[in-house]
Specification:
The termini are far apart. The chain has 185 residues and is mainly α. Helix content is 60%, strand content 0%. The chain has one domain (7-172): Four Helix Bundle (Hemerythrin (Met), subunit A).
């Protein structure tokens, strides 16, 4: 994701322009919207991020940065190369901050699915239903953590969420399940 935009850049733009959410949650909303519809538009996403005010305080450069983020995420989530990644603070940031961002990301993703048009829980089937239930639990993640065990758990949760998004995207787009390489020992 860093080739598209830096987390800190987006966080600064959203903070400075009175957005309703921060970078991780905004990326989650965008990812959820893109899972639901090919017709997701940048302006629609910005209305969600800015609670319909569409960033009246955004400079032209800030708007271009957010549009670049939108386009980059749209390209990555549709890629067959599994290039999609979560937009979270760097690994050198405190674990509590990253855990909070992951919880915010999941909350945003769930919101983005609904905002994008997927509003009936009865429409969720198979792996998507279980993944979404797990994301609801992750959105309640406690940020009181530290140490190697918690760091490893965080990395596993992050990867689970990342792959879960790809499974949901695939199932919503009629592509079935994401294929995993199986290693035979």
């Amino acid at each position: 994701m860093s080739s598209v935009c830096e987390f800190e850049e987006v966080e600064e733009v959203l903070t400075g322009s009175a957005a309703e959410m921060m970078a991780a949650e905004a990326h989650g909303v965008l990812s959820g919207m893109l899972c639901v519809s090919d017709d997701a538009q940048c302006n629609s996403w910005l209305r969600a991020v800015y609670d319909d005010e569409v960033g009246e305080l955004l400079s032209r450069d800030d708007l271009l940065l957010l549009e670049r983020l939108f386009d980059g995420v749209a390209e990555m989530i549709k890629s067959d190369d599994f290039d999609f990644s979560l937009f979270l603070p760097d690994d050198d940031e405190p674990l509590g901050l990253r855990a909070t961002a992951l919880a915010d990301w999941c909350r945003g993703f769930i919101y983005g699915l609904g905002y994008g048009g997927m509003d009936k829980a009865s429409e969720w089937q198979g792996d998507s239903r279980e993944i979404l239930q797990d994301m609801v639990e992750i959105s309640r993640l406690d940020n009181d953590c530290g140490g190697e065990v918690d760091e490893n758990a965080f990395m596993e949760l992050s990867e689970f969420v990342r792959m879960g998004v790809l499974v949901i995207f695939s199932e919503l787009r009629g592509g079935g399940e994401v294929e995993h390489d199986e290693t035979i020992h």
